Amino acid sequence: ANGGSSSLWPHPRSVREYASHRKKVHTVAWNCSGTKLASGSVDTSVRVWTIDEGGRASDVELKGHSDSVDQLRWDPKNEHLLGTASGDKTVRIWDARTSKCVHAIETRGENINIRWSPDGQHLAVGDKEDNISIIETRKCKALRTMKFPHEVNEMAWDPSGRLFFLTTGAGNVDVFSFVDLLKPPPAPPKPGDGSAAPAPAATLTGHTANCYCLEFSPSGERFAVGGADALVSLWDVKELACVATFARREQCPHSP
């Protein structure tokens, strides 16, 4: 939201607007229990809202980042842990019970993407230079940082945690074995560089322009991809096959 507020929309109209940020809101996410809503802003702050059944809300500000908070996500297994990615070259993990940062992890570049693995044991973080770091959350240590040869826009694990998906600027979705991503590179990278990414196990083609976003259905049987060609494609996870496309959009989808 440009005005620094977050809105609740059950379809088709907004029923509540919560304003606390001073600048644009770039990211919002619910925790796994649906009891808290987090928002991140260009003003460098993170807000965590506790909203009751009547829509009444109280919020706290999480302070620590020194640049825009471009994406945040909650731990899928722990309703209290929140991960945030910022342009200040750090990833932070917060405990919503205390409103404190429990871990701050330095990264190579300005971060724009973050995603938890389904079991909550890993974080994937992407930066503006198309590096992706895999962080082990127990020790809060980057296991590997990989440099991709193309624009990376979004990333996600499948519900089993065995496959790792990337949407790319080439209009494709690359699918990797997550175990393969953790293997040491064949040659050590130069100091300050990320290792070259391994080849994908599969490349899915269903768009004619940049793929922006990807999200799995609650059942884990389907995933949706949104692209700059104003298409949303729907895919079968087991077969990795496109089962439907939706083209009745006037603008490019940035979040399915």
Q: Could you please describe the fold and organization of this structure?
A:
The protein is an all-beta fold. The chain has a domain at 5-147: YVTN repeat-like/Quinoprotein amine dehydrogenase (Methylamine Dehydrogenase, Chain H). 2% of the residues lie in helices and 50% in strands. The chain has one helix and 23 strands. Strands 11-12-13-14-18 form a five-stranded mixed β-sheet, with no helix packed on it. It has a four-stranded antiparallel β-sheet with strand order 3-4-5-6, with no helix packed on it. A four-stranded antiparallel β-sheet has the order 7-8-9-10, with no helix packed on it. A hairpin with a 5-residue loop joins β5 and β6 (57-62). The model has no long low-confidence stretch (mean pLDDT 88).
Would you kindly provide a brief summary of this structure?
Helices cover 2% and strands 50% of the residues.
